[in-house]
Predict the structure.
Amino acid sequence: MEDTPVLSQHPYAPLRVGNFRWLLLSHFAIALATQIQGVVVAWQIYSITKDPLSLGLIGLAEALPFIVVALFAGHAADTKSRKWIALWSLATLLACALALLLLSLASNLAGLEWAIYGVIVLSGIARSFLGPARMALSAEVVPRELYPSSVTWRTGTWQVAAVSGPALGSGLYTFGKEQLAYGVTVALAFAALLLQAAVRPAARRTGAARVSIWKSLGEGITFLFQQKVVLSAISLDLFAVLFGGAVALLPIYASEILKVGPEGLGLLRAAPAAGAVLMSVILTHRGPFERAGVALLLNVALFGVCTLGFGVSTSFPLSLAFLALSGAVDYVSVVIRHTLVQVMTPEHMLGRISSVNAIFIGSSNEIGAFESGVAAKLLGTVPSVVVGGVITLAVVAVTAWRVPELRTLRRIGAASSNVTSEKGARF
């Protein structure tokens, strides 16, 4: 039986909704599997090639198919059963995990890295469908009054997985090489599939079902470009992640600069998420930002500063500290952006808007990884990270100057009417 809607603004209110709990657990399981898989794939590929560009190709292999199908995935999430889209996507990710396990048993296979890239391409397609469907599905299982709090829980859960996943992945690799790590990802992907199957969303009407796919996509894109504050927030995060991220180069830092091996790589990968988890605890128990726009700009600027600091550091503890702080401030920007998208978007358009958001943000992590690999190849590892941090700070300055509506954005409430600026305008 469906839980009675919980209208309280208590920070734990979303957890009282049974369907949301199942969704959150499924989200955690597949996120943990993805994080374990990510650290092992990166180490495995770099061990084979010893080429920084190969690390960038990992991101490109996932991002390109993601970008190609993301808009269609958003249309599907608004016109088809979101639960079944999520189930098929998770089943595909389970198949990808099984494929990586089988490939790890054929370590002498010629062209092994290209086979791994092929699996990553398929996982990128699955992820492009899973993201919009699951974000929109969460809006079906919790009352609108709980959207902001549910976003914090969803994002925080991912960050917990991002902390434990890399550390667990490096530990599994140390004790059992790729086979043990990939075996665990298979089990976690299967658990995510079962947990997702337990979600029972209420029946809904699909507002986009009676129009063509091209008109549906056009409506979604038009709506987003009319929301100047949302578009600028998404764009700001896009360029910050695209140029300011150094995660793709962590195997090089662990192997050649900090000299801490695969165990240290796991800690480096986990550090940003550790900072994000700490910040998620703080945000869960505090009220909404009274000046959300200023908070977003400042935290993205701090992300750029942390990128600069990490780039020049040769101390392992200091590098961990910079990464942890970068994760904490990045978490703030993620929560503000996701809350803006979910609060200001009509429920029947959430799939399409989420897919556009995913193209801007989800793929920017992978495209950013490719950019980092190319920049490291051309400029060297440290200069490429430093330049990325400088570009991030420049993007923040330009955004603050060109989009005054974002600077004056105040508290984001549970409905779009509560998103106001200092001038009293409503967005």
